[in-house]
Automatic annotation (TrEMBL):
Listed cofactors: [4Fe-4S] cluster
Domain of life: Bacteria
Pfam families on file: Fer4 (PF00037)
Annotated 4Fe-4S ferredoxin-type domain residues: 1-31, 50-79
Protein name: Ferredoxin
Organism listed in the record: Nannocystis punicea
Span of the signal peptide: none
Keywords, comma-separated and alphabetical: 4Fe-4S, Electron transport, Iron, Iron-sulfur, Metal-binding, Transport
Task performed by this protein: Ferredoxins are iron-sulfur proteins that transfer electrons in a wide variety of metabolic reactions.
Length: 100
């Protein structure tokens, strides 16, 4: 029952969740350092649609990432809102995993 980053990350994508994750299982298509190097106001324009994802086979469900997210984009997979359920698969797919 891993945590999942939904599409609401895109546009903010500040990598704060990745910085607090104790096992470094949060990644995305753009290096964290690159994302952090761009001012917040410009990130959504420079990297449209880019978000981070959680590796479902590595996440230990500690919950550390949830409260630090300014976009409220992170949920346990069982709590992902109905209209965002496809994002569970998107997280798994990014890492070549199957949804558990
Ligand atoms: S719940 Fe914990 S282990 Fe899972 S992604 Fe968030 S910080 Fe990392
Ligand atoms: S903290 Fe939230 S907005 Fe920032 S990268 Fe993580 S999921 Fe995206």
């Amino acid at each position: 029952m891993p945590h999942v980053i939904t599409r609401h990350c895109a546009g903010t994508c500040d990598t704060v969740c990745a910085q607090v994750c104790p096992i470094e299982c949060i990644h995305g298509p753009i290096a964290h350092a690159t994302l952090r190097s761009v001012p917040a106001a410009e990130r959504g324009v420079r990297f449209p649609g880019v978000q981070l994802y959680i590796d479902p086979d590595e996440c230990i469900d500690c919950g550390c990432c949830v409260d630090v997210c300014p976009a409220s984009a992170i949920h346990m997979d069982c709590d992902v809102p109905l209209e965002l359920r496809a994002d569970i698969e998107a997280n798994a797919r990014f890492f070549g995993r199957r949804v558990r």
